[in-house]
Amino acid sequence: MAESTGTLTTTEPSPSLPPLSSMGFARWMWRQFTSMRTALILLFLLAFVSIPGSILPQRGTNPVLVEQWIADAPTWGPLLDTWGFFDVYAAPWFAAVYLLLFLSLIGCVLPRIGVHWRTMRMPPPPAPRHLGRLPEYQEFTTTQTESAVLASARDYLVSRRWRVRSSDPGEGDWIAAEKGYLRETGNLVFHLALIGVLIAVAVGGLFGWRGNVIVKEGAGFSNTLTQYDAWGGGRFSGPEDLPPFAFTLQDFRVEFDRTEAQLGSPRLFEADIELQREPGAPLVKERIEVNYPVSIAGAKVFLVGHGYAPQFTVTDSQGRVVLDDAVVFLPQDGNFTSTGVIKIPDADPQVGIQGLFLPTTALDEVRGPFSLFPEADDPSVFLSAWAGDLGMDAGKPQSIYSLETEGMEQLGLRALVPGQTWELPNGAGTVTLGNYVRWASFQIAFDPGKEAALAASVIAILGLLGSLFIRRRRVWVRVRAAEDGTTLVEVAGLARTEAGELPVEVADLAADLKGKS
Question: Which of 302, 308, 387, 434 has its Cβ near the most Cβ atoms within 10 Å?
């Protein structure tokens, strides 16, 4: 209010809210954090930060491709690796969003359970004074008495599983009924199951482990940490938790489609292994196929990839055999054009060889050598030999699938088919290409939370279906004496959400009461 006295005007200060105490501010922050809006924002944020895990290769599933990606992107690769983009689901920033969503859901859902429990115990609300204003309304007269109409209405509603409440003395003659409480129940079940999924995933992440290994045909694998090409475990798991099994890859089979429509796509993709489930146990034969892993002591062995390993015999400048083994080459495309590296640190001078293996050889003036088909119909290998310091004595870790040629001298280039020998220039030795064997890539994983996550996901879907298809609605029946001695009956309904079948339900109730007049 402003008061004017001559030329002097005074203005009373407008009222202001008292400042929040620290406890009041904390309560306000908690209410904001546990609101459904915040939970939805965090859920979308979790989906957003999961995108790199779908776009970029992950160490848990394909460590070889991760190393290749980093090598091909020397600027961005190491940065993304430092920030955890190649192991998204173990990154601190992903865990932070995950935990915030978990706490927000708990704070949001638990209070709603109490509110819903109290709501379910409350009787339906009394009939409004003006039923005719409701969206679903019918009115008619009947010769039945008021008590008979109400008794018929109660029987009809109870038989259809409506919760019914009758008027108390002095409130008039009416019946109220309500249905669809399971809509909110389904909503709460969905959110509780979502919390269960988060808990199950967390259990799997904390106590589970997984690793990847490449095994050549005829070679074996024992489940120890040193045998893995890549291995990662949760905070509460370690190498001592690995079950002591071993297996030998006896045979790997793959067949490729040769028809025009599906040319080159695999029709058969399976590995036969000889498995020893624990020390001293008998050897058993198992077959691993895509989506059909072998389960061993809670862990599962998945078949995730395959390729070629050409056989090389390498001699040094003194004529000594320094390598006689099959070397794993990694496929670069769908036709299995594959790259690999041979490192001879014991040679004098040290020798490194880069190779390109082609299952079905083709040459092009623009593309150069490439493979026409993934099956080894016409195999060959193109080699580039280098001499000098391999850098393996500097203590810096190196990938076995790449060669650092900085500071090395190129000796020459040569293409070989099986059985041919290349005499390296300057008397540096010889390289002989033999046959090839296949290799298979296995992922071995232990996830103790997967069964609980599956069960919680099924429950979440059921709860979501209930919240989507069940509609909460109310109906009322009011009776009073008409001037002509008959009974005036009003039937009305109100839906808490979409009307759904409420108009039909109100019409059926009214028709039932009319039919008994």
Answer: 308
